[in-house]
Amino acid sequence: MASTPKILAFSGSLRAGSFNHKLVEAAANGARIAGAEVTIIRLSDFALPVFDEDLEARATPDSVKRLKDLFRAHHGLLIASPEYNSSVTAALKNTIDWVSRPEQGQPPLSCFTDKVAGLLAASPGALGGLRGLVHLRAILGNIQVTVLPDQFALNKAHEAFNPDGSLKDAKTKETVEAIGTKVARVVTKLRA
Q1: Are 74 and 39 in contact (CB under 8 A)?
Q2: pLDDT per position as a tens digit, 121-138
Q3: Domain boundaries, the chain
Q4: What CATH number is given for 6-191 in this structure?
């Protein structure tokens, strides 16, 4: 029997009131309903410097080591990505770049290989951040992550949440939770 699936959930936003963080919390609830153990993090808690091979050569920052440990300890990812200029945020790309770096004693891409990812986006705009998910899907696919075809982009995000951070619309909540549920179920099947 497979162990409990472990899902790491985060958004690509550093903003305290991030719509994407609220969205990934809703998806995480779906993963929990499906029996997963979910860890929700904020990238702002890790204060990563901009990736620089010279800096890496001197010493990998402790914040990077902590993130790598978190990625390795989880089987799946839930990522809600804001769209900046039709792509992913600098914070999200920088995180992926640091976490993907080789490390002595670990196989290449050890933090990403065989992970399953569910993608979401939230934006006040009409497309809900959809264009950025195309880039995120390509990046993750190239570093050996299995990205589920299911994804969700929430438009008019500035109107979509209650003051407590929950989604106002029941159908939207159900759709978002289904992304989390699917990640948990696929991880469980792959680990069986």
Answers
A1: yes
A2: 999 999 999 999 999 999
A3: 6-191
A4: 3.40.50.360
Which position has the token pair 């680990």? 191
Residue type, 152: F
pTM to 2 decimal places: 0.96
- pLDDT tens for each residue of 84-119: 999 999 999 999 999 999 998 999 999 999 999 999
Model confidence at 2, in pLDDT bands (50, 70, 90)?
low
The tokens describing 112, both together, are: 């990403």
Q: Give me the amino acid identity at 70.
A: L
C-beta of residue 114 within 8 angstroms of C-beta of residue 77: no
Give the 3-state secondary structure of the chain.
Answer: CCCCCEEEEEECCCCCCCHHHHHHHHHHHHHHHCCCEEEECCHHHCCCCCCCHHHHHHCCCHHHHHHHHHHHCCCEEEEECCCECCECCHHHHHHHHHHCCCCCCCCCCCCCCCCEEEEEEECCCCCCCHHHHHHHHHHHHHCCCEEEEEEEEECCHHHCECCCCCECCHHHHHHHHHHHHHHHHHHHHHHC
> CB neighbours (10 Å) of residue 142?
11
The amino acid occupying position 48 is L
